[in-house]
């Protein structure tokens, strides 16, 4: 998308100050370009992992909003939202019934960037069938050995360690077990 594509369409619609424009992605960037070459761009910054990974580089993406009558320019928040929350948010804006599904409106965050997210957890899933749980500031990743079926775990405090450099699973066994239960209950495992 270039700097003019969205703006030109909004001009044709006519109501620029009251038009909500959202730019995001469904997952993190790939490590290599479409031509298969690694140009060293670090598209995920210093986040751990890339597209298809359960780590932050695979799931944390920009979420850019332009809605001049509601959202002030350069507003930032670190609250948890998901691309699957867009339909619920649009329904909330329009005063309509929330559509079926897991979406949760984030309208309160658009109106006030200091508001807390209604979304307190999110399950991440890869196409290969692996899962992780984001629960508040915590990220829990269970790993099953393909050799003997045993489990190992990763636990990160994303508020203190957004780059997932220090695995706390062995130090925080109770928190690890709590999040394992929440995740496995959520996915019916």
From TrEMBL:
It comes from the Bacteria. Gene3D superfamilies: 3.30.1120.10, Alkaline Phosphatase, subunit A. It comes from Niabella ginsengisoli. Residues 51-175 form the N-sulphoglucosamine sulphohydrolase C-terminal domain. Pfam families: SGSH_C. This is Sulfatase-like hydrolase/transferase.
């Amino acid at each position: 998308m270039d700097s003019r594509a969205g703006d030109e369409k909004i001009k044709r619609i006519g109501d620029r100050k009251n038009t909500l424009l959202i730019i995001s992605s469904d997952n993190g960037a790939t490590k290599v370009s479409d031509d298969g070459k690694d140009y060293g761009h670090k598209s995920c910054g210093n986040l751990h992992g890339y597209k298809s990974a359960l780590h932050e580089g695979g799931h944390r993406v920009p979420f850019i909003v332009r809605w001049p009558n509601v959202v002030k320019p350069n507003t930032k928040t670190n609250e948890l939202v998901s691309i699957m929350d867009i339909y619920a948010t649009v329904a909330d804006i329009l005063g309509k019934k929330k559509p079926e599904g897991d979406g949760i409106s984030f309208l309160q965050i658009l109106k006030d960037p200091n508001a807390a997210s209604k979304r307190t957890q999110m399950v991440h899933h890869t196409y290969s069938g692996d899962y992780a749980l984001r629960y508040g500031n915590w990220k829990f990743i269970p790993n099953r050995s393909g050799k003997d079926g045993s489990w190992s775990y990763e636990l990160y405090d994303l508020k203190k360690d957004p780059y997932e450099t220090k695995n706390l699973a062995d130090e925080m066994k109770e928190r690890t077990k709590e999040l394992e239960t929440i995740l496995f209950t959520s996915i019916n495992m």
